[in-house]
Amino acid sequence: MTVALAGRTPATFEIKSANLPLVALLLKSSDLQLLEQDLQGRFGEQSEFFDHDPMVIDLAPAGEGEIDFARLVGLLKRYRVMPVAVKSGTPSQMQAALAAGLASAQDAALTPALSRREREEQPAPAQPVAVQAPPASTSALVIDKPLRSGQQVYARGRDVVVLAMVNAGAEVIADGHIHVYAPLRGKAIAGARGDAEARILTLCLEPELVSIAGVYRTSEHPLPDTLRGKPAQIRLEGEKLVMLPLNP
């Protein structure tokens, strides 16, 4: 015998499943002081690169060391990301993360950096992936004034064109390409959200740091005379930055 019971829907709330795109941090060391130094070297004291994006932290590369999650969360929040979950840690690491208010996200899938063409050719996933690069805008961000030390420009979801000098201590970030029609003496970070086909082009290559899709090179490694101070382009091949004269 089938019995039908009257149901009651709460008037004040409703619970549904939700899809949440996340950025991911692959934590390669439990040494948070070293992490702080590397973050500052990449983004400076603070960064406009993130916009309070939710983040999952992959603990697998960090090994079995103890992690101060309260300090880690505070450090990451300085760069406008919101750590919400962890994955792939040891039992003690996962327990400490849960005690710090982070959720367990063992099923979160991380995706490798893809070129814009590869992302466009991929079929839409049945489930959301952990890292999603935003589509590039059809228009570029154009900067027509010199960028002084301490200034930062971020072209979210598009290319950036700089018509004046990027001075030492300044930073240009783009999800797409970076074009600098003047001396590039600061930092240039192209393909910031994983576009492996992004390029950096400048009429005078003298940078403190260049990076494409997370692969970077600093001024600690001097440029050859054939490139330093000359028109050049930079692209990514695998895990290697390739630098070429702009007009060979």
From TrEMBL:
It holds the Pfam family MinC_N. The keyword Membrane does not apply. Residues 123-133 have a biased composition (Low complexity). InterPro entries: CAP/MinC_C, MinC, MinC_C_sf, MinC_N, Septum_form_inhib_MinC_C. Residues 142-242 form the Septum formation inhibitor MinC C-terminal domain. It comes from the Bacteria. Residues 111-133 are annotated as: Disordered. Residues 13-83 form the Septum formation inhibitor MinC N-terminal domain. Keywords: Cell cycle, Cell division, Septation. Transmembrane segments: none annotated. Cell division inhibitor that blocks the formation of polar Z ring septums. Rapidly oscillates between the poles of the cell to destabilize FtsZ filaments that have formed before they mature into polar Z rings. Prevents FtsZ polymerization. Belongs to the MinC family. Interacts with MinD and FtsZ. This is Probable septum site-determining protein MinC.
